[in-house]
Structures are given as structure tokens and as C-alpha cells.
Amino acid sequence: xxxxxxxxxxxxxxxxxxxxxxxxxxxxxxxxxxxxxxxxxxxxxxxxxxxxxxxxxxxxxxxxxxxxxxxxxxxxxxxxxxxxxxxxxxxxxxxxxxxxxxxxxxxxxxxxxxxxxxxxxxxxxxxxxxxxxxxxxxxxxxxxxxxxxxxxxxxxxxxxxxxxxxxxxxxxxxxxxxxxxxxxxxxxxxxxxxxxxxxxxxxxxxxxxxxxxxxxxxxxxxxxxxxxxxxxxxxxxxxxxxxxxxxxxxxxxxxxxxxxxxxxxxxxxxxxxxxxxxxxxxxxxxxxxxxxxxxxxxxxxxxxxxxxxxxxxxxxxxxxxxxxxxxxxxxxxxxxxxxxxxxxxxxxxxxxxxxxxxxxxxxxxxxxxxxxxxxxxxxxxxxxxxxxxxxxxxxxxxxxxxxxxxxxxxx
Length: 411
Description:
By secondary structure, the protein is an alpha+beta fold. The protein has 19 helices and 11 strands. A 7-stranded mixed β-sheet has the order 3-4-5-2-1-8-9.
């Protein structure tokens, strides 16, 4: 019986990255052998065990083959006769198909270390095509490490998409990988890789349809709407670790993909169309409501934030109420970050200040300072209180906007 550390822990150690989870493969053993040593079995589909002290996962070396369509249509064979190389061969990428023995020696039968040094994501074997989730994993690893996808692997992924393999993915798994990708440092690479292998068209047609759609040519190169949204995602990634902000930045302009061509490069009314498309997208992948709600608000009202200096105080108050900013201040902060990402996600404007966000924040702070309890103490009731609050909030917002307009006047 031999124990080997495998997969991401080996890869991350070689990259000098923190090792969070350790996975182990046991060669030359049967389930009974591990149970006799105090390991607790947890795997229903194939034998996985928890170490009695560390609680790390130990799996018997296994082979697998696809026996039916779908994500779970696999047959696994785990026996003492399965070798370490047999087990590693079934893995997705060479950089994930390395192992380390108990003495710390590297075992690398498929050239993972060389690909790691070259920054290449390469499939291990033709078994890659049996699991369409691997398309998403490759794209996510590209977002994590900034590696390029090997030409032969990209071709394989493209062939899988064309064969309809990606249609077998369950919505929850797609969202899981998408959410993870949004949390990576180079999140845009996830979507670039999906586009390169033609999976974006199948999974996220609303996003794919933005590429080739022109915008007013004020800030090249993002005259292409698809390029613009990826630049916005870049800025959101720089501004916030919050994947809700990054998702909102990614989908805020979906409506531009439905603008009739004879109206290009204008996109009148795209805000409402974007909101409707976000609804449909979130239903399709069962995306949590907190992602959907923020994304809809950013899509609907980002232009209001950009044009804050042009808005009447009453419109600013109405917008704050539509954003539910007084009851959900943290979401309002995330809204402002997404708007800033949109404004700075343009050629040459990446570091340009975004005073509109600060002014909107100040208007909200001033309006939030209105004390409803004080109004109750004056004998107001019911609708009278709401009307009085609105009047005082409007007055506070007016003062903030007037102050900024005075500051902006030349002396």
C-alpha cells in the first residue's frame, strides 16, 4: 500500500502558491485495508475516505470510462491492481496530473512540470472529451493562472462543443464554475477561452452576441461592445473582490446585443432590455437572487449614476428609492463600484477619477441623515411621515448637488 499526494496541492506547491486542500491517492489497497486503519468512507460513487486524524481525502487509485450521456454517466473501477499512472491518466490537465510520494519525490508521467514552467494548459489524454465540465475547468484555470490553452486542447474543446457535449451540463454546475471564475484575478480570461472554443455561444449567447456590436467610437478599442464589457470586468476585478460586483459589471450591457442593426451604434433603451435578459439568464442557471438583483439595478440605473450632474434632485431621490438604497446600503455601495467599473472600463480612462460615484454617495448620506423618529415626535402620522421624509431628503440632496455645482464653477 502506497500513498501519493496528487492534483492541485502538488501543482500549487510547485508554483509557490498556498496549498489549501490536499488530496491523496492510495495504490495497492482495497477499501477494507483503509477501513482497518481507521479511515472513514464517504464516497458513494467511488471509494473516498477521510483520514482519521487530518480528515484529508484519500481515494483508491481508479480508472473510469463514460458509459452513458450526462455529467454523471461514468463507471469507475478501483482495485489494488490500478497503478498511479492509470489514475493520473484520467485527469483533465497535465499540470493536475502530477503526484508526490511520501518522500517528497515528484512523479510526472505526462509532462506537467514542463507545461507549468511554460504556462500551458494541455489535456492529458483523449479521456478529456468524456467530461464537458472540463471545458469550464480549463477556462477557469486560464483565469486563475493566466496560462494559454494548448492548440491541440483548444481544438479538442471546440470539437466537443460542436458535438453538443456542452449541452449536457447541468445549470448548477455551470454557475458554480462561472462564480469561481469571477473570483479569479484574471476573470476575463474565462470568457475569452470560452469564446475561443465556441462554448460562449452555447452557454452565454447573451454575452457572446455583444461581440461585433459597435458602440459610439469615443473610446477605442472598445467600440466593440464585447470588448468593452470585458474591460469593465477587468476594472471590476481591480476595484472589488466581490463576485456580485463582477457579475453585474459583466452583464450590465446585455441589451446592446438586441439593438436592431439599423440603430447602431446607438443603443436607446438598452438598459431595460439588459434587465430583462439578466432575469432570463439568472433563471436559466439558477443564479442566486443577490447576484440577479444587483445586476438588474446596475443595468437599469448605471446611466443615471454617470449623468448625476445632469439630474434634478427629485430624480436623484427617485433613483435612490428605486435602488432601495436606504434599506440596503451595502448593495448601494456595490452598485457604485459597478458603475465606476463601467466608466473606467474604456480605453485611456482606467485611472480617471469617477466623481459621480462620490457625489451619489454624498447625496445618499445626506438623505439618509433624515430622522423619521423626530417627525413622529412632531405628531405626524402615516402618509404624512413619508411625505415629510421625502421633502427633507429632497432638501438634503439639493444642498449636496448645489454644493458640487458651485465648486465646479470657474473662479
